[in-house]
Amino acid sequence: MNFLNGTKEPSDSPGERVLFFIGRLLLAVSIPLIAFYVLYLGFIFLRDSHAPRGIITVVAIVWGVGGVALLYWVFNNIVEKLPDLWTNRLLPFVFVGPAMAILGWYLAIPTLRTFWLSLFGRDGPPAGLNFWEQLASPAFVGLNNYVAVFTERLMLEAFRNNLMWIIFGSTLSVAFGLVIAVLADRSRFEKVAKSFIFLPMAISFVGASIIWNFIYEYRPAGQAQIGLLNAVVVNLGGSPQAYPQWVSIAPWNNLFLIVIVIWLQAGFSMVLFSAALKGIPEELLEAGRIDGANEFQIFFRIMVPYIRGTIISVWTTIVIFTLKIFDVVWVMTGGQFGTHVIATQFYRQSFTNRNSGFGSAIAIVLLIAVIPVMFYNLKQFREQEAF
Amino acid sequence: MASVTYDHVFKEFGSVTAVNDMNFQIEDKEFLVLVGPSGCGKTTALRLLAGLEEITRGEIKIGDRVVNDVPPKDRDIAMVFQSYALYPHLSVYDNMAFGLKLRKTPREEIKRRVGEAADILGIQDLLDRKPRQLSGGQRQRVAVGRAIVREPKVFLFDEPLSNLDAKLRVQMRAEISKLHHRLQTTFIYVTHDQIEAMTMASRIAVINKGLLLQLDTPQKLYDKPDNLFVAGFIGSPAMNFFRAKLRKADGRLMVDTGDFAVAIPQSRTEMYRNYVDRDVIFGIRPEDIHDPNFLPANIHAETITVKVDVTELMGNEIFLYLVSGPNTFTARVDPRTKYALGDTGQMAFNMDNFHLFDPESERAIR
Hints:
heterodimer, A: mainly alpha, MetI-like fold, 2 domains, 0% strand, disordered N terminus, B: alpha+beta, five-stranded antiparallel beta sheet, 9 helices, 20 strands, 34% strand
């Protein structure tokens, strides 16, 4: 069974084998050391150098991409030098390990730290104390921040608005995407129509908000309206209105912001639905037609159930988007006029009010709100064998 | 229950004519099989009747009603698809009830009809399952059940057995025949498998390149093929064909292939009178070529010399692949034959059962 355990070294004499083993050990230790040293030099160069920007950029790309490749190569080499049994045990960590480490460093640890911050007052845990001393310090407020999250007036408004975002934003994005996908599928202009509807996907939330700012632009009555919507309204005999700021219809003025995300996301859902619809066997629809279904019945009773998995995946994805929505609100209204959402509250508390405890608590609440949707979403993807 | 009439029906896809002047009538309660090679237009012909394709020219009637512009759901037909096309999200019961529910049939009535169909097909235990939990044969039954509960005037089958394994196919063949007998309704069945056609049909329509070549009972089709294509398509192994000339010699009419010549019995010489000294195609089925040692009684046998190229033992018979001059052909002979690979010897043609075709028109000479 020796060949299975893969001891590749020549087994001439015991002395040679020991020498060979030591040589390999040295090599195994020195290669990563050299690799790390090279990477460290690169880091120092990037940090301290005053070279021209272009050169720094090139070095950074080589250092970043090359460094990842180098580390992978080094570790892969080390692991492959081991007996097969250990190679099989360790190889997965070589592949997944770096990603896990980065995720841990940039995601898991900050999350834990945010939670820790959320248990303290506005200035966070006092510095220079150990864990137990921090707990005992007056800055420790327990769950008080969380109580505030669920009782403060603006926070309650944010929750209400986020609920509107979820209900209208995700549902309408899905509905529009689905209807457009079905109609485009039957149209001679399918490609052109789809391209135009998909186009907004390429625009950032901030960019889209600025575009819509122009659409909603308000000039007092009597002046020339330069906003598209007001120009149309005034031409039809209506009076101009600053729509996102229209407090007297609150909370429905939020819908003017939600429209922007629908505009952006309908294209995304359309593309996924379009692909799913093309996966429905033609014979299934023909069977439905012969069975007596009209086109509406075919849509609701055959097509929709058939692509149900895709609908749920798209819907949950957009729910997560809308739960985390920030840019659109921040650019359009800055959270005024009753349009605050959880993320804008988080930003306001953390960075405007400098209340790190309260801000962290909001972030944690938002995280907890997203997690179940995320899990459901992953479950759907898994059922569709997306991974 | 209704007859179906194809009245000079054409279907063109761009410049391709998929169905070319089909003109025939299917009687009430008949089991008609449309058979032909892949891409011959048989499925298109069926889809025209189902209303899934639009007719380019001509008329299709179900009963006395022209259905050209009637949508599929109002044609009073049911169709079983090759892929079964079961609704994956519905249980077996709901799959079968789907069409009835859309037609607002009372719930009790739906229950009764689905129950009956399930009884007929032996799928009572599967009613709560989803299609993906069923085997191919079970799905096939559900697809048939979905057609039965609708109690349509005409049943359409589009290669329903081609996704099943060989054994199941034989079994389902018999069941569909039984079903036809029981339901006493018009069945129209598309297949590329001539054995399915032969075993189930009351009449067979052989189609090639969009043209209806012959519509007849299975036995007539086998015994008296109208043309070269039908002769070659129906029967397995296929009929042997030889290029030949008709020649008069010693007062007898001979089929001369250049390599061998066989005499035509006196009783049939008259009908070939116009073809004397002309090219013909001589056709003879493998079972009409015999080992002279095991010759049936009372036939006009003509022996020729052949070389045995391959032998295939089937148990109850032997297929001999024979060579004579430039011709290779197949004989289906008694299993007691002593012929083995490489042998040269005599083979007898049963000249009571041969076919002659005009090489130009490819039509049978009668």
